[in-house]
## 1
Amino acid sequence: MSSCGLAMVPPAKNVVLYRNGDPFFPGRKVVVNQRRFPTFEAFLNEVTKSIHAPLAVRNLYTPRHSHRVAELGDLQDGCQYVAAGFEKFKRLDYLNHGRKELRGTSTSGWLFFPTFHSCRNTGSSHTLGCFYCSVFRNGDLLSPPFPLPLSKSTPLQWDALLATLTEKVDLRSGPVNKLCRLDGTQVSGGEELVNGHYYVAVGNEEYKKLPYFELLVPQDSAFRTLWYVD
């Protein structure tokens, strides 16, 4: 190939990719080389493997404004993007490693921590009086679980918790009416929630027993470490 032909090949781009809805994933640097990835689909397939996505990556979004990337040429060198499947974009502060949820909120009677800086899942969480659960959407095997940080020192009002879950989960069936363990048994109150455990938000429909944990929690994700916290 002539030097003129080589000059026409677009230069490689370095981008950082985050997993959609994963507030603990630190991001993975990927080199976009058109020789290696002749099509956008080939690049998405590589991204799926690179970030160990639970399902095939089919969409890329800008982290701040959730603009969808349509083709390789839209990627900008040195920029960050959020990799997703067919599920909707999850609004997290990905550029700060996702530890600050953009939709953090608090309600009377219980406290939802909007930041993860002081209440990360470490030994200090016990002394700070906070703990974490992770919540799946009933029947949804496309969306990863989201973390639910709660206060140990503030009594949980169950109705307020369900109302906030309704806002965050956005179930197709409507409001969240109950929270179930992975075996399908129903949680009746906040005192039954266990630090580091996984739950499923359910609406008016029946609980759907599916392999949520096995399919939606990557093996190397920090979400899996939550499972073993006592």
Note: The longest strand covers residues 130-137.
## 2
Amino acid sequence: RREPLALINLKKKNEETGEEELASRLDHCKAKATRHIFLIRHSQYNLDGRADKDRTLTPLGREQAELTGQRLASLGLKFDQIIHSSMTRATETTEIISKHLPGVKKISTDLLREGAPIEPDPPVSHWKPEAVQYYEDGARIEAAFRNFIHRADAKQEEDSYEIFVCHANVIRYIVCRALQFPPEGWLRMSLNNGSITHLVIRPNGRVALRALGDTGFMPPDKITRT
């Protein structure tokens, strides 16, 4: 529903200058800029924490976040914003990354919290959440996809560069949906802690994946997948 034709009211078309007016209004609704979406998985955290507030980053996780922040800063891009999951490990990762990107505003959202997006196919034996989780988390994560992953607004004049700090399940689901792959295949991908996934959304709505779970900027002994 983001095609220009879906954004105008065809019933208001002037009968005399119909085609010309329609073309003008369509052009007014067309996106002009490209969006660059950088999806960052949070760094390694304390798996023993019972509550979210106890699942803080490990010392290695803090190192990973520093490396990710340095890598993003080295790209020389003008980042517009950092949107992050409200969970502790994502928030802490964001705080460390943002030190390397001064002036970039941070926005917290519950939509990007970790969860069970959709039942994976084929199923796996090591991870079987309650069925209700797919209904609760799945609707929320799908809402995150629809809210954040779309072509640029027609009013946007310049290309944008946005960072999203969240979780492996969320990122993998978003990648499948953005590329129009069967979303049930999300669990076939694996993402390292602190990794960078880069999606490009063109003005015509086409999406390209430039990087998936990149941690090539980290020394081998700093790479984890917990």
Note: Residues 86 and 206 are 29 Å apart (CA to CA).
## 3
Amino acid sequence: AADKIRLIPQDFFAELCEQIIQHLNHKMPGINTAELCQRIQTSGVDISIGDLAKVANTLSFLFSTAARNNLSTEELIATLGSGVSTLPKHAVQVIRHVWNEQGKATAVSEDARNMATVGQFVDMKWKLGVAMSSDTCRSLKYPYVTVTLTVADPSGQITDKSFEMTIPQFKNFFRQFKEMASVLETV
């Protein structure tokens, strides 16, 4: 991960660290590495989404472990310095600054540690479409609904999951959402 961190400009690295701390503090559902990667690539840096996700996972592990062990800023920096592959100076400075400013607020509760690791729902989009024809069938006129769910996995990575449903399937899906809404109103 240290080799990939060297590629990331300091301002983008600081933004990534801030987002990870905010995610660990439950102030945001996750880190949109795809959007951040696109901005980094637009600035002229050649880094893949997969590499940026690895860096984000490494930093998330670093910050959550530091929070779990109640490390001070100096203890965290000393631990980083003893690593096999040393981090670039700008990365250590950013980690020091972010942990000094916001690390104390990052508390990993016992309940959070014991909680099952599941994703968190962020957003949902849908659209109605009609399949007019295909190479094997001249006239389909088949309506369908495409649903895209945006989910943050336990490490904070935001991904989109898409699926299509027939109209009867969508009506059943909608009915189940209405049932959930009515149950939530009674709570």
Note: The two ends are 45 Å apart (CA to CA).
## 4
Amino acid sequence: MASVASPIIFKEFCPLYYLLNAIPTKIQKGFRSIVVYLTALDTNGDYIAVGSSIGMLYLYCRHLNQMKKYNFEGRCESITFVKLLSCFDDLVAVGTASGRVAVFQLVSSLPGRNKQLRRFDVAGIHKSSITALAWSPNGMKLFSGDDKGKIVYSALDLDQGICNSSLVLEEPSSIVQLDYNQKVLLVSTLQRTLLFYTEEKSVNQVGTQPRK
């Protein structure tokens, strides 16, 4: 008996006006009017995270249809990368053009989950624009890469409110992608792709020829 083909579902793609309308196109700073550019994006089933050129992170909760805003203290600088993670707590990592990295532990209404917004900073290691971020599935490890080739490992203890960071790898060209799974960090740069084994601290290059 011939199997019945599943019906084809057509979907229409359109701008997310409900999201875009909640983000200002300009802000006033003193006597100047500054245009707001959207510079980074990440999504999961719970949130849409949008970074901006004014250093503001816009976080839209898809279940509550609410927009919240988070920012860095101090000078206003462009957000270059955002990375969401849903594990026991909801986390979002944010990187900026000057190399600042922060982790926000979000508030949850669910029982037993985090009830107070907390922020962790990766301080003083990156000195240039953040180009990649990668979480471990449990939210205890964060890897960050910049356009000078530095990769930093941050160990987070959410219960104790501690973030310890260290430089684990330095490449001669910009980091363009990071992904982590089972003690192996996949690293792509402008010149090559490699596997970094975090326990042995060893490197295995993928392929032999450099990228053109």
Note: DSSP finds one helix and 18 strands in the chain.
